[in-house]
Automatic annotation (TrEMBL):
Domain of life, source organism: Eukaryota
Name listed for the protein in its UniProt record: ADP-ribose pyrophosphatase, mitochondrial-like isoform X1
Domain Nudix hydrolase: 160-315
Pfam family for this entry, one: NUDIX
PANTHER family assigned to the protein according to its UniProt record, in alphabetical order: ADP-RIBOSE PYROPHOSPHATASE, MITOCHONDRIAL, NUDIX HYDROLASE
InterPro entries xrefs: NUDIX_hydrolase-like_dom_sf (IPR015797), NUDIX_hydrolase_dom (IPR000086), NUDT9 (IPR039989)
Length: 320
């Protein structure tokens, strides 16, 4: 009886605390919404001169020749698919242009657990392969990407207010309060980024953001089963709510004319520093460093991650 009353009190207090501290107070939206409020810009990083982790030079594509609807008769994109992809790791498709007897892929649909639907709508299939909906990139084939067409990722933007030791919120030069987000330094190119990652076959994006945050920002892969269990409990609370801030194409340097990155980004916000304070950041998996970083328009981040942060700063009326 005493135990029951105590548990009920705890439960009510917990509900009260959550309601009042505004810890990630927005409900998670796992709905299929198309790019809320944001339209992808003309891709730039997807036309970078040298393709990542290679010496391959892209065919130069000027801004005005990016759209497929613009005539560009001289266009001769380099054909490149990395050897590591041709060796068919679990996440990679067959090379459908050469392996003619491989079973056909269900583009714009689902192949069992593999989601080949784009957040951008129906993409075209030209000469048997998908065509990048954002236009030319100067390179055909799949480069470093495993899937033909969309390669799905998910990104957790975990934020808190920047405070001094007394708990006072600090303002930026524009007079608005400064937000901080958990940022990781990627092992592949040493750039700072949101700790996101690829959606596994059959996985829902809300599970991906949580798994990737655990692996890259908390080093969960190196934990003992007991530590993992404890972490899972804490993550249950941290990731139970959140707000979707972007869904769509990403201007990623790995994109090609036939394979590209798409993501769903969520913001998990800790209004009074009470949730994430308990958790110790520790870089793991594809991340070599992790830290709370001040949000600002002058950051140089991986792919189009800066655009997601701009949206987050706007939503919280934070310094930018
Ligand atoms: C990264 C994500 C990123 C996506 C698209 C993935 O490899 O882990 O953070 O949004 O690529 O660039």
């Amino acid at each position: 009886m005493i135990v029951t009353v105590w548990l009920s009190l705890e439960y009510l207090q917990c509900l009260f605390r959550r309601k009042n501290r505004g810890c990630m107070g927005n409900k998670a939206t796992a709905v299929a919404r198309f790019s809320p409020g944001m339209k992808p810009k003309c891709h730039v990083k997807a036309r970078c001169e040298i393709y990542p982790r290679s010496q391959i030079k892209r065919f130069p594509v000027p801004d005005d020749k990016v759209p497929w609807t613009t005539n560009f008769p001289e266009y001769k994109p380099v054909d490149y698919t990395a050897d590591s992809i041709l060796k068919r790791p679990v996440y990679a498709d067959p090379d459908i242009r050469t392996e003619k007897d491989s079973p056909p892929l269900t583009f714009n649909g689902c192949d069992g657990k593999i989601n080949r639907v784009s957040h951008m709508g129906k993409y075209e299939i030209v000469d048997g392969v998908p065509r990048n909906p954002q236009g030319r990139t100067g390179l055909k084939g799949r480069g470093q990407l495993g899937r033909w067409g969309p390669n799905h990722a998910a990104d957790p933007v975990v934020t808190r207010w920047k405070m001094d030791e007394s708990g006072k919120t600090l303002n930026g030069s524009d007079g608005r309060p400064v937000l901080q987000f958990v940022s990781v330094q990627r092992r592949d190119n040493h750039q700072w980024a949101i700790p996101g990652g690829m959606v596994d076959a059959g996985e829902v994006v809300t599970a991906t953001v949580r798994r990737e945050f655990g692996e890259e920002a908390l080093n969960s892969m190196e934990m003992s089963p007991e530590e993992k269990k404890r972490l899972e409990k804490e993550l249950d609370q941290l990731f139970s709510t959140g707000r979707e801030i972007y869904r769509g194409y990403v201007d990623d340097p790995r994109n090609t004319d036939n394979a590209w990155m798409e993501t769903v980004a969520f913001n998990f916000h800790d209004e009074d520093n009470s949730c994430f304070g308990k958790i110790k950041l520790c870089a793991g998996d594809d991340a070599m460093n992790v830290q709370w970083m001040d949000l600002s328009g002058s950051l140089d981040l991986y792919a189009s991650h800066i655009d997601f942060l701009a949206e987050v700063a706007k939503n919280h009326n934070a310094s930018w």
